[in-house]
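Work Package 3 (structural annotation) set out to generate three-dimensional models for the target panel prioritized at the project kickoff. During this period the team completed the workflow that converts sequence records into discrete structure tokens, so that structures can be stored uniformly alongside our sequence database. As a representative example, we reproduce one entry of 713 residues exactly as it appears in the project archive.
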Amino acid sequence: MLDCPIRLFGELFGVICIEHAGSPRNWALEDLIFGASLADLAAIAVETSRRRESQRRMQTLVSNLPGMAFRCRNNPPNFTMEFVSEGIKDITGFDADDLINNKRITYFDLVHPDDRAALFDANMETLYVGMPLESVYRFVHKDGGIRWVWERSRVVEVDADDPNFSISEGFVTDITERRRLEEAEAANRAKGEFFANMSHEIRTPMNGVIGLTDLLAKTSLSNLQTQYVNMIRQSAGSLLAIINDILDFSKIEAGKLTLDTHEFQLVPLIEDACDAIALQIYKKGVKIAVIIDHSICEPFIGDSGRLRQILLNLLSNASKFTNEGEILIRVQTISSSNKNYQLRFEIEDTGIGIPTDRVDGLFEPFTQADTSVTRRYGGTGLGLSICKKLVEMMGGNIGVKSQPGRGSLFWFTVLLHRLPNAETQILPSSHKSLAGTHSIVLDIHPATRHVLNHLITNLGGTLVESTSSADFIAQIHKQIQNGRPFDWVFCESEYPGYGIEQIKNDLLTISEKDRSRLIILFSLGASFQSLESANLPNLYGYLSKPIRTETLYRLLVGSAKETLTTQKIGTEKQAASTVKRLPLRILLVEDVKINVIVATTMLCALGHRVDVSENGIQALESMRRKEYDLVFMDCQMPEMDGYQCTRQLRLAANDTKNQNVPVIAMTAHAMIGDREKCLAAGMDDYITKPIDSEQLRDVVSRWHGKKSTFKKN
């Protein structure tokens, strides 16, 4: 037997055995050569089989990759593809066979003409410097479309005899979709920056217009001048509302609109919104009333600012399209659990109504019920679409029912979260504090009578709704004759044909012992001075409309000496008391002269002493010389902006007199994230321009006597 070893790469792989049978054999040299040749052929066959299997596996792997692998023979300026994977077809529409050996098309023919020179230069640099190539460029697809690709390749072989000849291997992947996303994100960032800048640039002069108009209105003016000033203020307010709508819509389009959830009280929020509208519609004679389900629990967790925005938008629309009658707001519980409350809000008016064929598109952007609406009433047509988006973000729906000439009912639902581990706080109206009491009301508007009846009934009492002044007095005398005078008498101060003097004369005919406690109902915006000077008999207090739940409760159930003259009826009185309580030293950091005049005048009118710095550097210098109680800081200023200044102030090593002074951002920026940016810089509160005196008074009162709440990370 002749045994010939099979060797692969120097290692024993197997043996070829040649056997001679039947008689002994002496193996000749030729036999040995023949056996060795067979062993070599076997080794070659095994190696070839392995290489083919390896290539098959590699081709399978490469063909499944989301891209194209290649091997290129470089002989500049010629580049010839020796191998191209099938992924080329997905990227370019051409088959691999079209490119191999440049059979039908060269690689550079696929590259966009504008990118060929740069790619050629990058390849040449790679060949001679020896660094791997990473490049982004465009292919022109077979169908004419454009594909963005990313290539990574390197030189793997160099001809020792000819340095211009080499072999490169690499990989190309399609990044078109990623590129589109990056471009979209860049566009959104640019859009966000544009709207942020637009917000700042518009709000800054608007602050001057509105602020100076408010200050001008407080000076001695003729009736005509006062009328002009009011028209300027209304026009500026309308412009600001349009700006806010456009900014909100831009956030929705960019996907940047988010909710700021926090704890808040629901009932005051609703009633505050009603008060704001009541002042607007007072001159039209339209009344507003609110009925809130007395079983609603508080406090809630949600975005109170956005909820208030929805309410104000719908109430503003109702007031805009209602010239007579009333607006009624209802809030009721749909479902509740230990964690959540689902609430339904309804805003019903007696306005012009909406044509049936216009209702479906009402919540679409830039849509209004009629093109004539824009000319007559103004607006952007964005308000309702913004409301729809906000309601949906709060887990609810929105809709409308309307009849032309008979009014509209807008409704929406929201899901609010209850505060964990908080005790249920039922509205005061659920306490039967008026059990056994009997009252009467004279008011021309059914909504007001209905609300008062609802609240008093929930307090356990009863209420007679009188429909005329004659019936009103007759009912009062009837109860006296029956030996049971009314406990409370509610009378509207502006009842048609029945003024304050007539009320006074009728009540004087009733003996002192039989007189009921009188409560005068008056609309926000009415002259309170004339009511106070009337000297009405047995007057117990005043109640402003729309009627607030807790105000009514405090009036009827509280001390008999407590009247509602302490509520926000006399703004000037409240302002005067605020002045006495808050004589503060304030630093105003602002570079726009008009804004300086507005803010300084408003703060001085509140009785405060104000110093002014034009930028952050001056502000820090002022705070080194003096100790301030409060700092109002503009954010965008030359030399050193408000963010840098506040960060410097909060540093432990700074040498200012009061490092913990509260800093209030006073800025024209009003986009998502601006408030957080201010707080992160070390500021304590945030108010946006244009600023009014009420807003300024509130923030000063809130931070009086307090230190900064900023905590270093």
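The two ends are 87 Å apart (CA to CA).
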